[in-house]
Specification:
Residues 96-219 form the Serine aminopeptidase S33 domain. InterPro entries: AB_hydrolase_fold (IPR029058), DNA-binding_regulatory (IPR052920), Hydrolase_4 (IPR022742). The protein is built from ten helices and eight strands. By secondary structure, the protein is an alpha/beta fold. The chain has two domains: 23-54 and 206-239, no CATH class; 66-205 and 244-320, Rossmann fold (3-Layer(aba) Sandwich), CATH 3.40.50.1820. Strands 1-2-4-3-5-6-7-8 form an eight-stranded mixed sheet, with helices on both faces. Helix 1 crosses helix 6 and helix 3 packs across helix 4.
Length: 326
Amino acid sequence: MAPEDLTRPSVLTPEPHLKRKRTWPRWLLWGTLSALILAFLCVTGISAFVGWSLTHPPRKPLTGTPSQLGLNFTNITFPSRTDHLPLSGWYVPAPQANAIVIEAHGYGGNRCGDKPSLPVAEALWQKGISTLLFDFRDSGVSPGNLVSVGDFEQRDLLGAVDCAKALGYRHIGIIGYSMGAATAALVGAKDPDVAAMVLDSPFADLRTYLETGMPHWTHLPNFPFTPLILTEIPLLTGANPARVSPIKTIAQMKARPVLFIAGDADTTIPMINSVELYDQAKNPKDSLWIVHRAKHVGAYSVEPREYLAKVSNFFVQNLTGDRGRH
């Protein structure tokens, strides 16, 4: 046997288990990274879908007209303020009226979708006060492709105020329901031509309301979905919930009275929202009416006669000085 050649370097072959130790972490890294990317895409995709659905509710058809209550009315079209979207509505003139009340409907509804809307128009007509009922953008028969839950709807309600002024009215009030009530609170703080408001079941702050309610509506975990949804909505639509905060502006209505209406059985927008707004309001004529057993925008259903009396008398006192007519 030949002696070993000490000048040749020996070649060491790695053990099979050592090869596995070097390659296994690489596969683990790529697998984990791929799973995280897939999970991120799924979560952001679901969040985008929820945000898009929230701002694009299905339209509901008009199911009645003021003529059902014996009221004469005129179909009317007027532009929203700022972006001039042509909005559709009904003008219900009361004989010799010098005051008008604009009705602002709730989320996903239309000018006659809220139960009190047509009865309120009738009650006000009987008191000599005209009404203007209209559809917000992307609602009823008004054009548009986005419901911003009070952000861009402010432009629509401001356009309704402009329309009321163009019709010759200088004593202008607003009654809003749910989203319409929150929008009215913001518009009332901006436009001094709004003399008095009734806010039925408003939310105090949209972002807080969405943060609280989103997990219940979507049945998705609060984290990470709710923060993602609220981040994606402005990116997808341009609408920003942070711009819809009546609690920050209600004190600016101190020169004009507000009647707040809420139900103690409201699980959609709990009455604490109205209580908080009432606590921040500064006008000594402000009042808060909480109706026992009433659900969301449900005070009229529980106490219809008292509802119509309170609303109509409030506007008579604060728009006409106890004069419904010239």
